[in-house]
């Protein structure tokens, strides 16, 4: 029997039973969100439905925000792959301004697709809200803005362009103002033209 050695800087390989538990927890939580909405997601109920101890859920995900991150992970990975290695205009090869527009449009679609989960992240602590996906989005956008607008405060501009993409605001615009995702994207285009 061969034994895998740990790689420096990498977490240890996951045990098979731990991987199965993690997958079962994510599947159960996904079903619960689909059936009852994300606001009603309870780690205790997820543990009970997944037939694991509640301690297993907390050890694995830390808290509710950690579980939510796991639930949005597949969509987030697809978005990140698109803007890091995908075809233009979202991926490398297009001018920075075109990539910024394509990225913001993709992010609107991303937030709409799992809006309830993103709202829960935003309602959590500022650490949860502004870490994880937000930090990746911010870094990518700030890099593109630095290319497009040398000398501008790219980090501030990245925050300013990400602010209208709050899942809470998008939900309000859709529910109260009757705006479609396409209208929100059109508004972002107007904002970009002002830059």
TrEMBL record:
Gene Ontology MF terms: DNA-binding transcription factor activity; transcription cis-regulatory region binding
Keywords from the named record: DNA-binding
PROSITE patterns: HTH_TETR_2
DNA-binding region: 42-61
Highest rank taxon of the organism: Bacteria
Coiled-coil ranges from the UniProt annotation: none
Residue ranges occupied by any HTH tetR-type domain in the UniProt entry: 19-79
Bilayer-spanning residue ranges: none
Name listed for the protein in its UniProt record: AcrR family transcriptional regulator
Native source species: Nonomuraea dietziae
Taxonomic lineage from the root: Bacteria, Bacillati, Actinomycetota, Actinomycetes, Streptosporangiales
């Amino acid at each position: 029997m061969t034994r895998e050695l740990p790689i420096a800087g990498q977490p240890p390989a996951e045990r098979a039973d731990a991987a199965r538990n993690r997958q079962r927890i994510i599947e159960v939580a996904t079903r619960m969100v689909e059936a009852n909405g994300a606001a009603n997601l309870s780690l205790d109920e997820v543990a009970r439905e997944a037939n694991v101890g509640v301690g297993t859920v907390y050890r694995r995900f830390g808290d509710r925000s950690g579980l939510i991150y796991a639930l949005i992970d597949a969509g987030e990975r697809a978005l990140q792959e698109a803007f890091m290695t995908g075809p233009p205009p979202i991926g490398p090869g297009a001018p920075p301004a075109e990539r910024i527009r394509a990225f913001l449009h993709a992010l609107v679609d991303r937030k709409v697709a799992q809006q309830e989960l993103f709202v829960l992240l935003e309602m959590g602590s500022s650490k949860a809200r502004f870490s994880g996906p937000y930090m990746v989005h911010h870094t990518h956008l700030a890099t593109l803005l630095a290319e497009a607008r040398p000398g501008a405060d790219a980090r501030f501009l990245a925050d300013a362009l990400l602010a209208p993409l709050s899942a809470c605001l998008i939900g309000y615009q859709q529910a109260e103002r009757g705006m479609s995702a396409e209208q929100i994207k059109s508004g972002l285009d107007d904002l970009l033209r002002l830059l």
